[in-house]
Amino acid sequence: MRILFITRHFGCLRNFEAALKVLAARGHQVHLAALQEEAQGGFELVTRLAQSTPGITVGWTPSVETQHERDLARHVRLGIDYLRYLEPAYAATPRLKARAEERAPSAILALLRLPGLGTAPARRSLATALCRVEDALPQNQAIVDYLEAQRPDVALFTPLIGLGTPEVDYLSTARELGIRTVFCVWSWDNLSSKSILRDMPDAITVWNETQRHEAATFHNAPANRVLVTGAQCFDHWFGREPSRTREQFCAEVGLPSDRPFLLYVCSALFRGSLPEADFVSDWIDGLRASGDSRLRDIPILVRPHPARTGEWDNWTPRDHVVVWGSNPITAKARDDYFDSLYYGEVVVGLNTSAMLEAAVLDKPVLTVMLPEYAENQEGTLHFRYLLDPDHGLLHATRTIDDHVTNLVSVLDHPAAARARSRGFVEHFLRPCGLAVNATEKFVAAVEQVLAAPAQPALQRPSGAVSRWSVRMLERAFAHPSARLWLLGPREREQQARRDLHHREKKQKKLAHASARESRQAEKEAAKRERDRRHRESRGHKRRAQVKHALVQRVRRLLRAGSNS
After folding, report:
1. Is the bond preceding residue 54 a cis peptide, omega within 30 degrees?
2. Rounded to whole angstroms, how far apart are CA atoms 107 and 109?
3. Nearest-CA neighbor of 139 among 168, 104, 159?
4. Residue 320: closest CA among 346, 298, 336
5. Which of 67, 180, 183, 560 falls between 20 and 30 A from 541, CA-CA?
6. Between the CA of residue 70 and those of 74, 164, 169, 244, 474, what are the distances in Å?
7. pTM passes above 0.90
């Protein structure tokens, strides 16, 4: 069977690497296609995968971002997604709402400020109208041609749902062409903190019952289309052994090997959040001021997040603290990452999937929930799963002092802390059984979809009113001044910066032209002055020559008269 796996960028496929190998080993032809480039090693990863695994090929989807109707579609979806975050379920997640609001079209924001239109019934009516407009948008012919050329038996998508992402165009077109489709949930927050899934695929693969509930609650997914497989992206940590001894690892990193060390794993915080390096400094100060002698000089390994390495450039080094580690894309980087988790005694962080990976290794995982980072922790829905009193993972406190006390307790009683991590893994990462390989379950889910009859091609309703609305919107927003209402606050700010840059560039160009004209005028004036002076000099010289000639003639005449 031919499998087409469409992803936002190739870096997302690191969570499916093992599954792709198994699919290819079972005789399926797997083609990996990305919509955009990234700079974190994703293309190198899939290139190595294709070179080492027969049956896997790599390519790019056609570019459709510049087409006007796609731009309209993106902003209509951004409006729908923003309306989602106004629902009561997201009342305690202000940063998620703010992130959607800064992308929502200004026209939608203006409508919601009108009397009566900000109510829940009015918002839902507006969302329904926008969904009808979205359904009436024409197919993108480049996508149609691409999918028909690929002719897949099934199309897989990840992470699929994101604010304004074009992957949904491929899903909707695949459904209209009668191609089987599977939404492969990428991460633990894929269903709760992104956009709405409006086109329902044939199947959704989720990690656990929590995500099954999210699929039903947030995306209205039918129960029979949601398949629980476990978190296949963590399978390679189960049963894995370190790549070197503890002594070799500590020597390479620069930590003493005669004592346990703490591992701090950094997070991908919201844009505009305080630098995590500042918190780490305060955290280290709290440990060093502890009354427990172990914490006053315990070695610490800090792994910076790949997307936020810049904040560590000017960080002041501390005794027995090492900042080390890179994005675990290559085999060597994965070894470094795994060995860091394996040899670390306790793992600490704010909100990162590294906490889940630490749990696989039975490591105690701690966090501190300070107000300045609340939006990145309790301000997200998925973080709350780590705090569940029955199946949660984290040992959480609200002050660094309490955290120090908690850390001492964990060091004194590690068995209980490890048991908590193991319970979380059984519930959240391997709900089908701790010994059940999630990759095999994921592959079985894909093959289950392949074995089922293909769904009939989706026929979208295309009412005249909706088509007329699309034509009117396209005409209206084609005008530059009206198009500003299509842009969200973030895009308007970016547009304002571009306009300012353009004006400054134009003014600078005019200033350079004016300066060039001034210099040219000065040169011409100087040349005229030189010419004038040259003419005057030549005239003066000629007059002097004439005068000299006359004097000489007069003298000759006088001498001639005196001789006669």
Report:
1. no
2. 5
3. 168
4. 298
5. 560
6. 6, 10, 9, 51, 11
7. no
